[in-house]
Known about the structure:
By secondary structure, the protein is of the alpha/beta class. The chain has 14 helices and 14 strands.
Amino acid sequence: xxxxxxxxxxxxxxxxxxxxxxxxxxxxxxxxxxxxxxxxxxxxxxxxxxxxxxxxxxxxxxxxxxxxxxxxxxxxxxxxxxxxxxxxxxxxxxxxxxxxxxxxxxxxxxxxxxxxxxxxxxxxxxxxxxxxxxxxxxxxxxxxxxxxxxxxxxxxxxxxxxxxxxxxxxxxxxxxxxxxxxxxxxxxxxxxxxxxxxxxxxxxxxxxxxxxxxxxxxxxxxxxxxxxxxxxxxxxxxxxxxxxxxxxxxxxxxxxxxxxxxxxxxxxxxxxxxxxxxxxxxxxxxxxxxxxxxxxxxxxxxxxxxxxxxxxxxxxxxxxxxxxxxxxxxxxxxxxxxxxxxxxxxxxxxxxxxxxxxxxxxxxxxxxxxxxxxxxxxxxxxxxxxxxxxxxxxxxxxxxxxxxxxxx
Length: 408
């Protein structure tokens, strides 16, 4: 039986054109974030299973690719369970590994520490447009700073990246987990019901206000549900006095963040308070935010403050906040636009006849090395029978100087 040519379901091969776009974007993203004082780090793709299943990752904990124990530690001789034969798994995001990394190396790092992390993550999810089982995440995080200056910095840095990638008219939606809890509790929901209520509220974009109302009424009293949903009905983009007062009451800095971002921004976007924004990760403790883009029809990034996660490793509370760009969705949108990376240096190709004498071939390689030392891209290939088609292919790849070399 022949080997399978297609990649595993939910994963994909990347052809040269897309790879060029991806590499260009990663370079631009990294250089932009470095201008804001962030430093690159890297963590392993394999993480301890106890960390991955620590009830920090929300629904993603159901999507872990688990890794079997190895060697003598793997015992399959008798009845066993999945948990008994696994000791690690592929990371489902970059935030939890970053928290472990910081807990292990905080003494060697500046405080606050501003990290860039770009790498593959894995989720056993159902593939769909813009969603894969292996995909690249692109995160910036600020660890060790309790002030809302970090949220402002993250938003301005991320929106600067999107502007440089030629995305405009998008919206940063922002909320605070403390405001979510306060609104739900004032409406009459009990402490033990809050997460269930938030899961339903998180469907607002998909099922609308009426859909959320219908689901809530299946489980909770009508007067509680109506009091709750009245908080979200018919509000504009500007903060009301009641909302500003509520933010001050629970200690949320959203009003200051929104005002400062609007004053300092250079990109073409809007930032608005969205009291229905939830974000499903269980580790968020304060401000949360998402990027909404009409061109995609959904979120293309998000993040928030997670002041309790690092303390799970160290026993000491450590402020932390991060923002992640939806890298795969950004790449998809750029490719759909027909985006092409500038060819950069001049590209020269030598097409050499098969019977070319060795001494003449040596001269060609010497000339190619000289041109490369001048910054040119040079390719040497054996001449094919259909030279016209071969030259057309090279031209399509950006080769503008194509030289044919014959034996005679």
